[in-house]
Design a protein that fits this description.
It comes from Mesorhizobium tamadayense. The protein has about 250 residues and is an alpha+beta fold. The chain has a single domain, classed as Jelly Rolls (Sandwich), CATH 2.60.120.620. It contains 5 helices and 15 strands. A hairpin with a 6-residue loop joins strand 9 and strand 10. Helix 1 packs across helix 4. The longest helix has 25 residues. The protein is globular, with a radius of gyration of 17 Å.
Length: about 250
């Protein structure tokens, strides 16, 4: 059975139930404190293998990017085309409302006027009205020596401030190295690095661009970038769920 053969309604309910089962109080606390949070066991090993197995099949994707050609690092990735695989679509829809609450809280603390609707379809309509119509969920593949430079996934004027990456391969078994890295630049301070340990099926939620940090008198804005360290051996697959569409 492939991901595309799953019934859409069944996949949606499955995605919603597994998202609801997460400890959201702890996740929000981690996001506020560190700019990232781990959802353990979001996907099963068989689901991870099934999604990773889509990579060679071009009919599922709208484009193929070789990182070295653009100075992004080494490795490659493919952007899914619409319609997305049912499970990825279901997770994107189920995760968005909870993350929109965090995003709106962050914008309020940073003094930003923008507020995000609670429904993902309404947010995508905003994207499409801005000319951002290309789907952004992607599947990444790394081989020995590959890495992803620190970056921000901003694809147009409208960007959702949180995204999710799910590790599809087992560290120490399928690959070594290849850690997820997040850096944070605070005003007039040196950058802080966060290495996030993940197991196969774990997902990391992280800030795309900015987040608020409590200062002595008020909140201030910090800038974040994310990447992947050099793979020492094996092969690593990750699926990325980005909530805004691209131009």
């Amino acid at each position: 059975m492939t991901i595309h053969s799953l019934n859409t309604k069944r996949a949606g309910r499955s995605a919603e139930s597994r998202v609801v089962a997460q400890d959201w109080r702890a996740l929000v606390s981690d996001l506020d404190a560190h700019g990232c949070a781990v959802m353990p066991g979001l996907l099963s090993p068989s689901e991870c293998a099934e999604i990773a197995a889509l990579y060679p099949h071009e009919e599922h994707f709208r484009s193929h990017v070789v990182m070295a050609r653009h100075g992004f690092g080494k490795g490659e990735y493919r952007y899914f085309r619409y319609p997305l695989p049912d499970l990825i679509e279901g997770l994107r829809t189920a995760l968005y409302p909870r993350l929109a609450t965090v995003a709106n809280d962050w914008n309020e603390k940073m003094g930003a006027a923008l507020r995000y609707p609670s429904d993902h379809a309404a947010f995508l309509k905003r994207c499409h009205d801005e000319g951002q119509v290309k789907p952004t969920p992607l599947l990444l593949q790394y081989a020995p020596g590959d890495f992803n430079c620190l970056h921000q996934d901003l694809y147009g004027a409208l960007a959702f401030p949180l995204q999710v990456a799910i590790l599809l391969s087992q560290p120490g078994q399928d690959f070594t190295g290849g850690e997820f890295v997040l850096t944070e630049q605070r005003p007039r301070m040196q950058s802080r690095a966060e290495v996030v340990p993940l197991k196969r099926g774990d997902a990391v939620i992280f800030a795309v661009h900015n987040r608020p940090v409590q200062g002595t008198k008020s909140y201030y804005r910090v800038n974040l970038r994310h990447g992947v360290s050099r793979l020492r051996s094996g092969q690593r697959h990750t699926v990325g769920i980005i909530f805004h569409d691209a131009e």
